[in-house]
Design brief:
The chain is of the alpha/beta class. It is 35% helix and 21% strand. The protein has three domains: 96 residues, Translation factors (Elongation Factor Tu (Ef-tu), domain 3); 100 residues, NADPH-cytochrome p450 Reductase, Chain A, domain 3; 156 residues, Nucleotide-binding domain of ferredoxin-NADP reductase (FNR) module (Rossmann fold, 3-Layer(aba) Sandwich). A six-stranded antiparallel β-sheet has the order 6-3-10-1-2-7, covered by helices on one side. Strands 13-12-11-14-15 form a five-stranded parallel β-sheet, sandwiched between helices. The structure holds flavin-adenine dinucleotide (FAD). The site of flavin-adenine dinucleotide has 23 residues, from strand 6, strand 7, strand 8 and helix 8.
């Protein structure tokens, strides 16, 4: 649980309540996405981060969903509950601030299976060997769905919260440099909104930030150091940055930092999104970096600008010779963003580049890339 202890240095255990300065949508009209830019004041916090780090943010749950849960549970909201640390608060407060109330925990599902005769499918899927099927079944289902499906199931307030996980902070890549924006931190966040089983759903933290914060909100946050994702110590070293979507956030910070330091190393950015017209985030800033000679190369991949899909890995392959030449010069290769597909596709492309341009066998290319990792020149921050 996050409590503020003034006088004690701010940390993960004692997060700083940061004031929101800016919340704007980055996509233009016609976009299918909602990606937002946030700026927070760290004034008076003494918090220091390095570009490449992330910040942990403590969100709050949606009061509408809390109300729906209370009604389904037949609670007024004023019932007092106790957490594992023996702290007492009303169940409404607990559901708003302290517990994960969207994705069901194993304990909650077990309690449903125990108490509801109707939950036959779920009961069968709870066998350990059916984990994959269970995950598929649970995709898009939340705690509220199980309660509405089994109205006869009863919990006492304490019992109910004991079945929930603690609400976890969410991490966001720092998108600014303290050298460019002293006592501030910027983020770039994709708003998670979707519909499933006939209900509108939302990501806890991304929508808390998007919809339920204003200049009066203080958001508890802390620095999450990403040791393996910092800029090269040597400012002369070239860097290649692959950051589609929100993956570009740390690279905006790198470029600000390198500009502020007067670093002479070359910088190459690969950015990708759906449409150049409405999803080219920070275009003016990146073009300004280019004009100033800080961004040596800027390659973009807009997947929906043409009939066939173009992604960052295709741009890497198109530029194979030069990418390899930069690696041979000692470039550090950074990847940030989607772990499920993009990072894997980029890794495959990197192997192909080394094979082709280094005239290597697949095994020799793999050894080359392994050596890059060992030298801490192939760095990823993927999620
Ligand atoms: C090191 C690190 C850095 C990160 N940096 C950034 C960043 O810079 N910007 C950024 O936007 N994010 C970033 N993230 C991700 C971020 O931490 C959150 O995971 C993300 O914002 C979602 O959090 P949430 O609370 O809004 O959603 P949650 O409440 O956590 O919900 C997300 C979950 O909703 C479910 N879900 C989502 N879509 C669907 C769907 N269509 N159908 C069914 N179920 C669905 C999935 O189970 C998914 O896991 C980073 C993560 C890490 C680990």
């Amino acid at each position: 649980m996050s409590k503020f202890s003034p006088g004690v240095p701010y940390s993960r255990k004692n997060p700083f309540p940061a004031r929101l300065l800016v919340n704007t949508r980055l996509n233009g009209e016609g976009s299918e996405k909602e990606t937002r830019h946030y700026e927070f004041s760290l004034s008076g916090s003494g918090l220091q981060y390095e570009v490449g780090d992330s910040m942990g943010i403590h969100p709050r749950n949606n009061p509408r969903l809390v109300q729906d849960l209370l009604e389904a549970l037949k609670f007024s909201g004023d019932e007092q509950v106790k957490n594992k640390e023996s702290e007492t608060f009303s169940i409404r407060e607990g559901l708003l601030r302290h517990y994960e109330i969207t994705q069901p925990s194993k304990q909650f599902l077990e309690a449903i299976v125990e108490r509801s005769r109707a939950a036959t499918e779920l009961r069968e899927l709870m066998h350990p060997e059916r984990k994959k099927e269970l995950d598929q079944y649970l995709w898009g289902l939340e705690v509220i769905d199980f309660l509405l499906d089994a109205p006869s199931v009863r919990f006492s307030p304490d019992e109910f919260v004991s079945k929930l996980r603690k609400l976890q902070p969410r991490l966001y890549s720092v998108a600014s440099s303290l050298r460019a924006f002293p006592e501030q931190v910027h983020f770039m966040v994709a708003s998670v909104r979707y519909e499933s089983h006939g209900r509108k759903r939302e990501g806890v933290a991304s929508i808390y930030l998007a919809d339920r914060t204003d200049e009066n909100t203080r958001i508890p946050m802390f620095v999450h150091v990403a040791k393996g994702f910092h800029l090269p110590e040597d400012p002369d070293k070239p860097i290649i940055m692959v950051g589609p979507g929100t993956g570009v956030a740390p690279f905006r910070a790198y470029l600000q930092e390198r500009r502020a330091l007067g670093a002479t190393g070359k910088n190459w950015l690969f950015f990708g999104e759906q449409r150049s017209r409405c999803d080219y985030f920070y275009r003016n800033e990146f073009e300004a970096f280019q004009r100033e000679g800080i961004l040596t190369r800027l390659d973009t991949a807009f997947s929906r600008d043409q009939a066939y899909k173009v992604y960052v890995q295709h741009r890497l392959l198109e530029n194979a010779r030069e990418v390899y030449a930069w690696l041979q010069e000692g470039a550090h290769f950074y990847v940030c963003g989607d772990a499920a597909r993009m990072a894997k596709d980029v890794d495959v492309a990197l192997h192909q580049i080394v094979e082709k341009e280094g005239a290597s066998s697949p095994e020799a290319a793999a050894a080359y890339i392994e050596a890059l990792k060992k030298e801490k020149r192939y760095k990823r921050d993927i999620y």
